[in-house]
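[Meeting: bench + compute handoff]

Bench side (C.D.) handed over the final construct sequence. Compute side (W.E.) agreed to return the predicted structure before the next meeting so the bench team could plan truncations. Sequence as handed over:
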Amino acid sequence: MRISVISFNTASPWGSEEKGTGSKTRIEKFIKYMGEESPDLLGTQELNYFWAEEIQKVLPEYSFYGIIRGGDDSKWTSEMNGVFFKNERFEKIFQKTFWLSKTPEISSRFVETDENGNEQKANCYRICSYVILKEKSGALLAFLNTHLDHICERAMLWGAELILEEIEGIKEKFGNDINIVLSGDFNQKEDSAVYKLLSSRLCDTTDETKKRATYQNWGADISDNKGWAPLRPGDTPIDFIFTNGTPAQYRILDKLDNGYISDHFGIRAEIDF
């Protein structure tokens, strides 16, 4: 079977009304874009409740699962890694969220003290949310969606390791032949330890002939942004879709007809299982 997957960091709580990138001006653009793309699966990062509710209202053909990560200062800025899936194609049989911390079963931030007494701490609470879906053919699919920390490299690697451990647990529970899709904003490029670890266990769907930067900071100069995923336009992606299937097609969703939808471009992959 072939499925279509989109991963999109929506930056739902962010943007500037003065620059035309305010959240309330972008939600309609995002919904219209996703309606046109009509993916089977959609993984979102930096999604808040307000966007989640509006998407479900306007695109009722999708079911939704998402849990706020915690540690944010308001409902508006409370982010989640929301997953959407088409009702006509999938039935949800399981859902779960875990934190990318030393206590993954409770809302928490990664904190670690090294042998020299130095504390390493993630900038934010980070999570991975996923659903186990039964496709109409009867095949099972695990769709995981995450957003790794953007500051602490130890937290990034810990998060990637936890996700791979969870995937092994999914296989034990639902069978080794379960189809796997992992989408997310990984805040790391292809030369990183995080990427190398994930791509050693799963296949990156990125088409080498089409790749470019997926973080574009609303088109602004991002050569010096104080550690916030420092990439230049035209550089390599930090958003990826991994799978144990066979990548068939790949596109970066860089349509800007009506202005920026986010400070990231979405990515779309077709996958054969």
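W.E. noted at the follow-up: The chain has four helices and 14 strands. C.D. will use this when planning the next construct.
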